[in-house]
Design brief:
Strand content: 15-25%
Radius of gyration: 21 Å
Helix content: 25-40%
Shape: globular
Oligomer: single chain
Number of strands: 12
Number of domains: 2
Distance between the termini: 33 Å
Length: 358
């Protein structure tokens, strides 16, 4: 039976209406963490995967119950992950850092001691500046917080800002912010990470997992060899999935259009993007300086990009189709914009559709 990779991936990423969930912890667990480069990105990524999400629901899970936590992990980037899998995502990515900037152990020790309570980077600087030379201290503290995050010692704490727009974060020691949990060896964490990945990104290649996690391919093969997987051949290539996985090939019964934010996890799951994106349009999504554009997705296929600016109490949307949208597609896009504005409790305006970029 032929496998519709696009439809399968769309469903497993919880982006199909029938596969969406009600709980943010379930959403983060199901897709191996949610990319969280910016405050608004986090909320829209969860919103696209959940039924009737309200901002307070995600805030509660992040800052009250702390069942979710924002950390540095895959590719050295920021994700929201389930707190009960904290060690999987920190230890599972630590051994494969492609770079390890030198940093004073003395500075790291001072930052750890300063974090008796959650602090912003500026507050950390103020607390330790009398004991160290102040030249470049702000830059050094920012690096120290990040490196300590890579090591699983520091996590993001409260977000400071207005509504969906985060100004800055406080940071906390993981041991103070999170409930105690059983630790794992690095090997166990890597195995768990791959098992989790295959649950929502399979069928996938060794290179896909290496790209997603930020691993070297040579080391990635060792992780694949350490767990049970099934293989499937698709168009002459070998893909892997969890042992016993049932690649359900059911398609949705109606057209679905969604607007994903920049850096959404849907775009970052595979090195080879053909299951979701025509190669002709790749440069319009994956931009210079490692930027990734917000995308318009129809039934799993990326069909354009979009952007939005906040002006007062209104959102100004710009829609950029790869190829000219028909009236039906325009109506689906407009309906999604209306729902996003309602979610954010703001008015909205849609600029005229740009000419197709083909």
């Amino acid at each position: 039976m032929a496998i519709d990779m696009t439809s399968l991936y769309f469903r497993r990423q919880l982006l199909c209406r029938k596969t969406r969930v009600h709980d943010p912890i379930e959403a983060a667990t199901s897709i191996c963490g949610v990319n969280a480069q910016r405050g608004i990105t986090i909320y829209l990524s969860f919103w696209n995967r959940m039924h009737n999400l309200e901002k307070k629901d995600l805030d509660r899970a992040l800052y009250k119950t702390r069942e979710l936590v924002k950390i540095w992990c895959m590719r050295g980037t920021v994700h929201v992950v389930p707190s009960n899998q904290f060690h999987t995502y920190t230890k599972g990515t630590t051994p494969f850092r492609l770079w390890s900037p030198t940093l004073s152990d003395d500075l790291c020790t001072k930052v750890i001691k300063a974090l008796e309570e959650p602090l912003t980077k500026s507050e950390i600087v103020d607390k330790i500046k009398g004991s160290m030379p102040e030249k470049d201290l702000r830059t050094q503290v920012a690096r120290a917080v990040r490196i300590l995050g890579y090591r699983g010692l520091v996590v993001f704490a409260e977000a400071l800002g207005s509504e969906f727009y985060t100004r800055e974060y406080k940071f906390a020691l993981a041991e103070n912010w999170l409930s105690p949990s059983d630790s794992l060896s690095e090997d166990e964490a890597c195995q768990n990470l791959l098992t989790n990945y295959l649950g929502c990104y399979a069928p996938a290649t060794v290179q896909d997992f290496a790209y997603w996690a930020g691993f070297k391919v040579k080391e990635t093969r060792k992780v694949f060899d350490s767990i049970d997987t099934d293989e499937v051949r698709i168009k002459g290539r070998t893909y892997y999935m969890k042992a016993g996985d049932n690649l359900d090939n059911t398609k949705g019964q109606s057209d679905e259009v969604i607007l994903l934010p920049e850096y959404d996890s849907y775009l970052m799951g595979h090195k080879e993007k053909s299951r979701i994106l025509n190669e002709d349009f790749k440069s319009q999504v994956f931009l210079p300086l490692a930027s990734v554009a917000p995308t318009i997705v129809k039934n799993g296929d990326i069909i354009g990009t979009w952007n939005v600016k906040k002006k007062g109490k209104s959102l100004l949307f710009q829609i950029n189709p790869f190829e000219e949208f028909n009236e039906y597609d325009i109506s689906l896009v407009h309906n999604e914009i209306r729902k996003i504005a309602h979610f954010m409790n703001l008015k909205y305006h849609i600029n005229s559709l740009r000419e197709s970029s083909s």
